[in-house]
Design brief:
It holds the Pfam family FdhD-NarQ. It contains six helices and ten strands. It is an alpha/beta fold.
Length: about 230
């Protein structure tokens, strides 16, 4: 028998809902994620999949809430332009910041990640142009948080290829693959990177820095993009 007197009976919970993304009438993707910033999620996911190159490639986006079996579910329905230019091989402008500056940005992002600091159990993803934080999202899935951060940048008309990605968790292969599609030059993490993520980043000329809060952060892969 569990002694309930020794337990907190009102623990925090992280919201998780099913989200379906339709492109036209076709079911494109199903997410289990935090039901916030769903336009950013849809735009970012399509950008990360190489389907769109800018927000204007989407002619219509609708978000609806559906109650099913006592749970809230959401639908994102997107219509695309008939012809989409997918060439992203433009010259990018990026200059690698100093490690101390990256540490300052990471500390600022951590301060702004309210849910992460409050109760954990959630991932934080942010994008910075080295000066300001362009976007910051928290989600139960690291890949969802990434998509939302990318989507916000695309909606603002900012090219992800000139931004720095900050993560509260490890850099895994899924994030490295998304970063390669988005041509992100630098991935920064409070944690470490997986072997497959490093392999992918090496092939896409992406720099990965881990343990950014430590006195001597880890350099996993270097970039020659400067």
């Amino acid at each position: 028998m569990i002694d309930q007197n020794m337990l907190n009976l009102t623990p925090p919970q992280v919201e998780e809902n099913e989200i379906t993304l339709y492109v036209g009438t076709t079911l494109f993707q199903t997410f289990l994620c935090t039901p916030e910033a769903l336009e950013e999620l849809g735009v970012g996911h399509l950008y990360c999949r190489g389907i769109i190159s800018e927000r204007e490639d989407i002619t219509k986006i609708e978000i609806s809430k559906i109650e099913q079996d006592g749970l809230d579910k959401y639908e994102i329905r997107v219509e695309l332009k008939n012809q989409i230019e997918k060439d992203r091989k433009r010259q990018d402008s990026f200059q690698m910041p100093s490690v101390s500056h990256l540490q300052d940005l990471a500390a600022n992002i951590k301060d702004l990640a309210g849910k992460y600091r409050s109760h954990g159990g959630i991932h934080c993803a942010a994008l910075s142009d080295s000066r300001d934080i362009v976007s910051l999202y928290e989600d139960v899935g690291r890949h969802n948080a990434f998509d939302k951060a990318i989507g916000a940048a695309v909606i603002k008309g900012i090219r992800p290829s000139e931004l720095i990605y900050f993560s509260s968790g490890r850099i895994n292969s899924e994030i490295a693959e998304k970063a390669a599609v988005c041509r992100l030059p630098l991935l920064v993490s409070r944690s470490i990177a997986t072997t497959r993520a490093c392999f992918i980043a090496g092939g896409s000329n992406t720099c990965i820095i881990g343990r950014i809060e430590s006195k001597i952060p880890f350099l996993y892969t270097a970039s020659t993009r400067e």
